[in-house]
Amino acid sequence: MEKEIFDKLKKAGKIAAEAREYGAKMIKPGAFTLDIVEAVERKIIQLGGKLACPVNFSINDIAAHWTPQLNDKTEIKENDFVKLDIGTHVDGYIGDTAVTIKAGVEKDSLIICSEKMLTEALKMFKPGTTIGEIGEKIQNVAKEFKLNPVRNLTGHSLGQFDLHAGAVIPNIKTDDKYQLREDEVYACEPFCTPGNGFVKDSGIAQIFRWIKDVPTRGQEARKVLEMSKNEFLRLPFAKRWIQQSISPIRAELAIKELTNAKALYQYFPLREISNGMVSQSEHTIIVKEKPIITTL
């Protein structure tokens, strides 16, 4: 790996880690989700990074892909399981990390489980380890805690300006024989739950990503496409970001037009199918004989 790329990965990871710790301290009963998310997003910029995705702030049985909407009044309640998931980048090189906080109380076995799943998996990110072996390790830790891994969520490889670069890191044993190679970059993010261990699309999408250009009727739709490519660099963005420069109603209509035309991908919040609480832990790793965790 070129030193310039390595340094940018390390910087992105350091910024993500600092923003994660900054945001985690703000997760308390009575706090507003929007206040925390916007503060964390500002912190990333202040630290010299850029957003690789909106800050995800998924609560309780929502496992992923929830971020507050414009003027959101959602308030954190005591005992809420809050998953703070942060993606940063430096010139497209990404740091992706997450932590789960149980608001107002000490961490419990659910959080301890996802943290151990991650800790054990991280040791395996060496050249020659198979993807299936990592999934088996993660699943075995969940069994140890008598919990279930979330089977249809995975970690993922990272590329420049690409949060999901092709390969996946499962939370369960699979027959995937692909062997990790030196200098590959992955986000490993185990999820666990006392529920059934599957998630499904739920609620209203607040996060979107450019897929392709399409002919559009509306000026606002053309502006959203332009922003998604040139300002957000084809990475995921929040609807509330768009609504800072386009009126909320016009932004809604533009995004609806573009999703209907398959120009934008929409990330629906992912809810555990049996409404089980979900914990998530995540770090970014560079594959080496001694794996390098950039987001510690």
Give a short summary of the structure.
Helix content is 32%, strand content 23%. With 296 residues, it is an alpha+beta fold.
Outline the fold blueprint.
Blueprint: H1 3-24, H2 33-46, E1 50-51, E2 56-59, E3 62-64, E4 81-90, E5 93-102, H3 109-122, H4 131-144, E6 148-149, E7 154-157, E8 168-170, E9 185-188, E10 191-193, E11 199-201, E12 207-210, H5 219-231, E13 237-238, H6 239-242, H7 248-260, E14 264-267, E15 270-272, E16 279-280, E17 283-286, E18 292-293
Antiparallel strand pairs: 1-4, 2-4, 3-15, 4-5, 6-10, 7-8, 7-9, 9-17, 10-16, 11-15, 12-13, 12-14, 17-18
Helix pairs in contact: 1-2, 3-4, 5-7
**Fourth CATH level, the homologous superfamily of the largest domain:** Creatinase/methionine aminopeptidase superfamily
Q: Just name the CATH architecture of the largest domain.
A: Alpha-Beta Complex
Regarding quaternary structure, what we see is single chain
- Lateral arrangement of strands in the main beta sheet: 8-7-9-17-18
CA(first)-CA(last) distance: 20 Å
Percent range for helical residues? 25-40%
What is the total domain count? 2
Nearest-angstrom radius of gyration? 19 Å
CATH topology of the largest domain: the name is Creatine Amidinohydrolase
Number of strands: 18
Characterize the biggest β-sheet: 5 strands, antiparallel
What structural class do the secondary elements suggest?
Answer: alpha+beta
One letter per element, helices H and strands E, the order comes to HHEEEEEHHEEEEEEEHEHHEEEEE
**CATH uppermost class of the largest domain:** Alpha Beta
Strand content: 15-25%
Q: What characteristic shape results from the CA principal axes?
A: globular
Uncertain spans: none
Mean pLDDT level: 97
